[in-house]
Amino acid sequence: MLEGLLGGLALMLLTGARDPILVPEISQHQIEVRQGFTGADLLLFGAILTPEGARAAQDYDIVVVLEGPLKSIVLREKKKVAGMWINADSTEFRSAPSFFAIASSRPIDKMVDDKTAAIYELGLKWLQLSPIGVIDPKAQTRFSSGLVDLMHRQGMYQQNDGAVTISGQVLYQARFELPSSVQTGRYTAETFAIHDGKVVASAMTRVDVTKQGFERFVALAAQTRSLLYGLFAVVMSVAMGWLAGRLFALV
Protein backbone atom coordinates (compact mmCIF):
# COMPACT_ATOMS: atom_id res chain seq x y z
CA MET A 1 0.00 0.00 0.00
CA LEU A 2 2.82 2.39 0.90
CA GLU A 3 4.58 1.68 -2.37
CA GLY A 4 1.38 2.39 -4.27
CA LEU A 5 0.86 5.69 -2.44
CA LEU A 6 4.43 6.77 -3.11
CA GLY A 7 4.05 5.78 -6.74
CA GLY A 8 0.89 7.86 -7.04
CA LEU A 9 2.56 10.90 -5.51
CA ALA A 10 5.52 10.50 -7.82
CA LEU A 11 3.19 10.28 -10.81
CA MET A 12 1.43 13.49 -9.76
CA LEU A 13 4.75 15.29 -9.45
CA LEU A 14 5.96 14.04 -12.80
CA THR A 15 2.74 14.86 -14.68
CA GLY A 16 2.01 18.10 -12.84
CA ALA A 17 -1.51 16.85 -12.06
CA ARG A 18 -2.58 19.89 -10.06
CA ASP A 19 -5.42 22.30 -10.55
CA PRO A 20 -4.58 25.21 -12.88
CA ILE A 21 -5.07 28.90 -12.21
CA LEU A 22 -6.90 31.29 -14.51
CA VAL A 23 -5.70 34.81 -15.32
CA PRO A 24 -8.70 36.61 -16.82
CA GLU A 25 -8.85 40.05 -18.43
CA ILE A 26 -11.42 42.12 -20.29
CA SER A 27 -11.09 44.57 -23.17
CA GLN A 28 -12.66 47.45 -21.24
CA HIS A 29 -13.59 47.75 -17.59
CA GLN A 30 -16.00 50.63 -18.11
CA ILE A 31 -18.64 51.19 -20.77
CA GLU A 32 -20.16 54.65 -21.06
CA VAL A 33 -23.78 54.92 -22.17
CA ARG A 34 -24.33 58.19 -24.01
CA GLN A 35 -26.96 59.53 -26.36
CA GLY A 36 -27.13 57.32 -29.43
CA PHE A 37 -25.58 54.33 -27.64
CA THR A 38 -26.01 51.30 -29.93
CA GLY A 39 -24.46 48.61 -27.75
CA ALA A 40 -20.93 47.40 -27.14
CA ASP A 41 -18.64 44.47 -27.90
CA LEU A 42 -16.67 42.96 -25.05
CA LEU A 43 -13.64 40.72 -25.48
CA LEU A 44 -12.92 38.47 -22.52
CA PHE A 45 -9.56 36.74 -22.64
CA GLY A 46 -6.97 35.19 -20.40
CA ALA A 47 -4.53 32.38 -19.76
CA ILE A 48 -4.63 28.91 -18.22
CA LEU A 49 -1.48 28.40 -16.17
CA THR A 50 0.02 26.07 -13.60
CA PRO A 51 0.50 27.40 -10.04
CA GLU A 52 4.11 28.16 -11.01
CA GLY A 53 2.99 30.29 -13.95
CA ALA A 54 3.90 27.83 -16.69
CA ARG A 55 1.62 26.61 -19.46
CA ALA A 56 -0.99 24.10 -18.31
CA ALA A 57 -0.01 20.57 -19.25
CA GLN A 58 -3.53 19.26 -19.91
CA ASP A 59 -6.45 20.11 -22.14
CA TYR A 60 -9.12 22.17 -20.40
CA ASP A 61 -12.52 23.35 -21.52
CA ILE A 62 -13.42 26.95 -20.79
CA VAL A 63 -16.80 28.50 -19.96
CA VAL A 64 -17.21 32.26 -19.56
CA VAL A 65 -20.33 33.72 -17.94
CA LEU A 66 -21.14 37.43 -18.18
CA GLU A 67 -23.91 38.50 -15.80
CA GLY A 68 -25.52 41.89 -15.32
CA PRO A 69 -27.08 43.50 -12.23
CA LEU A 70 -30.03 41.71 -10.66
CA LYS A 71 -33.48 43.24 -10.89
CA SER A 72 -37.10 42.49 -10.08
CA ILE A 73 -39.16 41.25 -13.03
CA VAL A 74 -42.93 40.67 -13.10
CA LEU A 75 -43.97 38.12 -15.71
CA ARG A 76 -47.61 37.92 -16.79
CA GLU A 77 -49.16 35.04 -18.66
CA LYS A 78 -51.77 35.82 -21.29
CA LYS A 79 -54.69 33.59 -22.24
CA LYS A 80 -57.19 33.86 -25.06
CA VAL A 81 -60.76 34.14 -23.77
CA ALA A 82 -63.71 34.69 -26.12
CA GLY A 83 -61.33 35.75 -28.88
CA MET A 84 -59.52 38.28 -26.69
CA TRP A 85 -56.09 38.07 -25.05
CA ILE A 86 -56.23 38.91 -21.34
CA ASN A 87 -53.77 38.76 -18.45
CA ALA A 88 -54.13 35.52 -16.52
CA ASP A 89 -51.58 34.27 -14.01
CA SER A 90 -48.52 36.30 -13.06
CA THR A 91 -45.46 35.95 -10.84
CA GLU A 92 -42.54 38.12 -9.76
CA PHE A 93 -38.87 37.22 -9.84
CA ARG A 94 -37.11 39.36 -7.25
CA SER A 95 -33.49 38.83 -8.34
CA ALA A 96 -33.32 37.87 -12.00
CA PRO A 97 -30.20 38.84 -13.97
CA SER A 98 -30.86 41.85 -16.19
CA PHE A 99 -28.32 40.35 -18.60
CA PHE A 100 -26.87 36.84 -18.81
CA ALA A 101 -24.56 35.52 -21.50
CA ILE A 102 -22.56 32.32 -21.54
CA ALA A 103 -19.90 31.19 -24.00
CA SER A 104 -18.12 27.84 -23.97
CA SER A 105 -15.43 26.01 -25.86
CA ARG A 106 -17.82 23.09 -26.43
CA PRO A 107 -21.50 22.37 -25.78
CA ILE A 108 -22.09 22.36 -22.03
CA ASP A 109 -23.66 18.89 -22.00
CA LYS A 110 -20.47 17.50 -23.56
CA MET A 111 -18.33 18.87 -20.71
CA VAL A 112 -20.27 18.35 -17.45
CA ASP A 113 -23.27 16.44 -16.16
CA ASP A 114 -26.57 18.07 -15.27
CA LYS A 115 -25.75 18.28 -11.55
CA THR A 116 -22.54 20.22 -12.12
CA ALA A 117 -24.21 22.47 -14.69
CA ALA A 118 -26.99 23.27 -12.21
CA ILE A 119 -24.57 24.03 -9.35
CA TYR A 120 -22.58 26.56 -11.40
CA GLU A 121 -25.54 27.72 -13.55
CA LEU A 122 -23.74 26.75 -16.75
CA GLY A 123 -26.43 27.42 -19.31
CA LEU A 124 -29.74 29.20 -19.70
CA LYS A 125 -31.72 26.12 -18.64
CA TRP A 126 -29.85 26.06 -15.32
CA LEU A 127 -30.50 29.65 -14.26
CA GLN A 128 -31.81 29.75 -10.68
CA LEU A 129 -34.87 31.99 -11.04
CA SER A 130 -36.80 31.71 -7.79
CA PRO A 131 -40.16 33.52 -7.80
CA ILE A 132 -41.54 35.39 -4.80
CA GLY A 133 -44.01 33.51 -2.65
CA VAL A 134 -45.31 29.96 -2.77
CA ILE A 135 -45.88 28.62 -6.28
CA ASP A 136 -46.62 25.21 -7.74
CA PRO A 137 -43.39 23.57 -9.03
CA LYS A 138 -44.91 23.04 -12.49
CA ALA A 139 -46.01 26.67 -12.66
CA GLN A 140 -42.57 27.78 -11.46
CA THR A 141 -40.91 25.80 -14.25
CA ARG A 142 -43.35 27.26 -16.79
CA PHE A 143 -42.78 30.86 -15.69
CA SER A 144 -39.00 30.43 -15.42
CA SER A 145 -38.83 28.96 -18.92
CA GLY A 146 -41.07 31.75 -20.19
CA LEU A 147 -38.85 34.43 -18.69
CA VAL A 148 -35.69 32.90 -20.15
CA ASP A 149 -37.33 32.62 -23.58
CA LEU A 150 -38.54 36.24 -23.45
CA MET A 151 -35.15 37.60 -22.41
CA HIS A 152 -33.42 35.42 -25.01
CA ARG A 153 -35.60 36.85 -27.80
CA GLN A 154 -34.77 40.35 -26.60
CA GLY A 155 -31.06 39.59 -26.74
CA MET A 156 -30.63 39.96 -22.98
CA TYR A 157 -29.97 36.26 -22.37
CA GLN A 158 -27.47 34.55 -24.67
CA GLN A 159 -25.82 31.15 -24.96
CA ASN A 160 -23.07 30.51 -27.50
CA ASP A 161 -21.61 27.01 -27.57
CA GLY A 162 -18.19 26.88 -29.20
CA ALA A 163 -17.70 30.65 -28.95
CA VAL A 164 -14.62 30.32 -26.73
CA THR A 165 -11.40 29.72 -28.63
CA ILE A 166 -8.35 28.20 -26.91
CA SER A 167 -4.86 28.56 -28.38
CA GLY A 168 -1.96 26.33 -27.43
CA GLN A 169 -3.71 25.03 -24.32
CA VAL A 170 -2.98 28.33 -22.62
CA LEU A 171 -4.75 31.36 -24.15
CA TYR A 172 -8.53 31.68 -24.43
CA GLN A 173 -10.90 34.37 -25.62
CA ALA A 174 -14.62 34.98 -26.07
CA ARG A 175 -16.66 37.89 -27.44
CA PHE A 176 -19.96 39.17 -26.06
CA GLU A 177 -22.40 41.66 -27.52
CA LEU A 178 -24.17 44.03 -25.15
CA PRO A 179 -27.39 45.40 -26.70
CA SER A 180 -28.29 49.09 -26.52
CA SER A 181 -30.95 48.40 -23.88
CA VAL A 182 -28.55 47.01 -21.26
CA GLN A 183 -29.08 48.11 -17.68
CA THR A 184 -26.40 50.21 -16.06
CA GLY A 185 -24.47 48.83 -13.11
CA ARG A 186 -21.70 46.37 -12.37
CA TYR A 187 -21.31 43.28 -14.57
CA THR A 188 -19.33 40.22 -13.51
CA ALA A 189 -17.44 37.99 -15.91
CA GLU A 190 -16.61 34.60 -14.40
CA THR A 191 -14.39 32.07 -16.15
CA PHE A 192 -14.48 28.34 -15.38
CA ALA A 193 -11.85 25.76 -16.33
CA ILE A 194 -13.29 22.26 -16.73
CA HIS A 195 -11.45 18.97 -16.95
CA ASP A 196 -12.81 15.45 -16.91
CA GLY A 197 -16.33 16.67 -16.12
CA LYS A 198 -15.29 18.79 -13.13
CA VAL A 199 -14.81 22.51 -12.55
CA VAL A 200 -11.17 22.70 -11.46
CA ALA A 201 -10.64 26.47 -11.40
CA SER A 202 -12.54 29.74 -11.64
CA ALA A 203 -11.73 33.44 -11.71
CA MET A 204 -13.70 36.65 -11.96
CA THR A 205 -13.32 40.11 -13.42
CA ARG A 206 -15.75 43.02 -13.63
CA VAL A 207 -16.98 45.76 -15.94
CA ASP A 208 -19.09 48.82 -15.06
CA VAL A 209 -21.77 50.15 -17.39
CA THR A 210 -22.44 53.80 -16.55
CA LYS A 211 -24.48 56.63 -17.99
CA GLN A 212 -22.67 59.78 -19.08
CA GLY A 213 -23.67 63.21 -20.31
CA PHE A 214 -27.35 64.22 -20.30
CA GLU A 215 -28.43 60.61 -19.68
CA ARG A 216 -26.44 60.58 -16.43
CA PHE A 217 -27.98 63.89 -15.36
CA VAL A 218 -31.50 62.54 -15.92
CA ALA A 219 -30.75 59.29 -14.07
CA LEU A 220 -29.22 61.10 -11.09
CA ALA A 221 -32.09 63.57 -10.96
CA ALA A 222 -34.63 60.74 -10.95
CA GLN A 223 -32.82 59.06 -8.04
CA THR A 224 -31.79 62.00 -5.85
CA ARG A 225 -34.37 64.71 -6.66
CA SER A 226 -37.47 62.78 -7.58
CA LEU A 227 -39.89 65.67 -6.90
CA LEU A 228 -38.00 68.16 -9.06
CA TYR A 229 -37.52 65.49 -11.72
CA GLY A 230 -41.26 64.82 -11.77
CA LEU A 231 -42.10 68.52 -12.05
CA PHE A 232 -39.52 68.94 -14.80
CA ALA A 233 -41.00 65.99 -16.71
CA VAL A 234 -44.51 67.48 -16.43
CA VAL A 235 -43.33 70.89 -17.62
CA MET A 236 -41.48 69.34 -20.54
CA SER A 237 -44.54 67.31 -21.54
CA VAL A 238 -46.79 70.37 -21.45
CA ALA A 239 -44.26 72.40 -23.42
CA MET A 240 -43.87 69.72 -26.07
CA GLY A 241 -47.64 69.38 -26.34
CA TRP A 242 -48.04 73.15 -26.75
CA LEU A 243 -45.26 73.25 -29.36
CA ALA A 244 -46.82 70.38 -31.30
CA GLY A 245 -50.19 72.15 -31.24
CA ARG A 246 -48.67 75.34 -32.59
CA LEU A 247 -46.90 73.47 -35.39
CA PHE A 248 -50.08 71.67 -36.45
CA ALA A 249 -51.97 74.99 -36.39
CA LEU A 250 -49.53 76.40 -38.91
CA VAL A 251 -49.99 73.50 -41.36
Summarize the structure.
The protein has 251 residues and is of the alpha+beta class. 29% of the residues lie in helices and 39% in strands. The protein contains five helices and twelve strands.
Describe this structure in words.
The chain is of the alpha+beta class and 251 residues long. Helices cover 29% and strands 39% of the residues. The protein has 5 helices and 12 strands. It has helices at 2-15, 114-120, 137-153, 214-224, 226-250; strands spanning 21-26, 30-33, 40-49, 61-67, 70-81, 84-97, 100-104, 157-161, 165-167, 171-178, 185-195, 198-211. The strands form 3 sheets. It has a 6-stranded mixed beta sheet with strand order 2-12-11-4-7-8. The chain has a 4-stranded antiparallel beta sheet with strand order 1-3-10-9, with no helix packed on it. The longest helix has 25 residues, at 226-250. It starts with a helix and ends with a helix.
Protein traits:
251 residues, alpha+beta, six-stranded mixed sheet, four-stranded antiparallel sheet, disordered N terminus
Which helices and strands occur, and which strands form pairs?
Elements: H1 2-15, E1 21-26, E2 30-33, E3 40-49, E4 61-67, E5 70-81, E6 84-97, E7 100-104, H2 114-120, H3 137-153, E8 157-161, E9 165-167, E10 171-178, E11 185-195, E12 198-211, H4 214-224, H5 226-250
Parallel strand pairs: 2-12, 7-8
Antiparallel strand pairs: 1-3, 3-10, 4-7, 4-11, 5-6, 9-10, 11-12
Helix pairs in contact: 4-5
